[in-house]
Amino acid sequence: MTIAIFLGALLGAMALGVPIAFSLLACGAALMWHMDMFDAQILAQNTLEGANSFPLLAVPFFMLAGEIMNAGGLSRRIVNFAMTLVGHVRGGLGYVGIMAAIIMASLSGSAVADAAALAALLLPMMSRAGYDKARSAGLLSAASIIAPIIPPSIGFVVFGVAANVSISKLFMAGIVPGLMLGAALWVTWWWLVRKEKIEPAPRASRAEVLTSLKDATFALVLPVIVIVGLKFGVFTPTEAAVVAAVYALFVSTVIYKELKLSQLYGLFEAAARTTAVIMFLVAAAMVSAWMITVANLPAELVAVLQPLLDRPIVLMVVIMVITMLVGTAMDMTPTILILTPVFMPIVKAAGIDPVYFGVLFIINNAIGLITPPVGTVLSTVAGVGKVSMDEVTKGVWPFMVAQFAVMFLMVFFPSLVIVPARWFAG
């Protein structure tokens, strides 16, 4: 009955068009009412406590770093550098998009920010070169969701806070899986364009490669600073976010000189708006998370899944499928906030490494960003690239299937995540 009220209140509010944050509050209030313990003070206290977290300070700074990166010329230089390396091969612009997405993922941590930058910079070029527009938009959408997996990652920050798992360990564990997703896109793109007769760009000379590398050096140094700083304990993930934002601001205004002081207010406002949405979701989810614990829902679910606790791989498959289904109807942040307090007790009871689970859970949620009908990244690419939503959805399918295949490969072979995570963490 408790589970029915929880799901009924949440899905019912969403069906009526209530914003997800307020649906979460309504869900928590409904559970309190059902358990005869409704108290507006507890509701307010848990809402405030949800946002009162030092690690969550990383969110506004990573969002700001992404905004500055796109406006200050860092993204464009990364694309130009990738262009000189692989732009001359068959399907070269697609490989440029994948390389640029991986590098940009290590700068911003936001799939939407990367999707907007890639669609604005590369989609017109791919269209003019004769590439299929739907397929190109689908590739750039799928490449953008590598951002929440390769550090720094806003998704890992939110999950780490919700699950009480080390964010630094999550960051280190996300590096190789993020590269594997990029490799899956690379192979899929190669297979799709192998018979196309689009004339590639001329091969860049060694001098042009070195010039583009020199031009992009300051942009490429940032991920090295963040990863090395985290590995050797120079700063925490929250401090890394501040370092990223300040470094991007310095490079954009002083070195590249493409960002004017008059633009800063707009960038700060855009980052603040996105942060406000995320933080309100986190705050509202705390009410539901608290009530989930009080109502003992995790224990009920553990009892239901008891037969699978001795078979962790089968249990992970079940959890991944549930997350996939939820991801088709809900955005990444609310999915993390709703499902984390439900799944974590089950994961711990089954003896599954929380960091390993966190990586796969975030990968699943990231792919949910390109899963119709909601697909926030699909909407972003469609809007920025002036492509219909139907075309983007059609073009993204082969890449989405490839990424899901990689995710389930990690489910069946956990060492693909755990072993590299130990290398970087050690």
TrEMBL record:
Transmembrane segment boundaries: 6-33, 54-72, 92-125, 137-159, 171-192, 213-234, 240-259, 271-293, 313-343, 355-375, 395-419
Keywords of this entry: Cell inner membrane, Cell membrane, Membrane, Transmembrane, Transmembrane helix, Transport
Topological category with respect to the lipid bilayer: Multi-pass membrane protein
InterPro entries for this protein: DctM (IPR010656), TRAP_DctM (IPR004681)
One GO CC term on file: plasma membrane
GO molecular function term, any single one: transmembrane transporter activity
Entry-linked NCBIfam families: dctM
Subunit structure, interactors included: The complex comprises the extracytoplasmic solute receptor protein and the two transmembrane proteins.
Name of the protein in question: TRAP transporter large permease protein
Biological source species: Pseudacidovorax intermedius
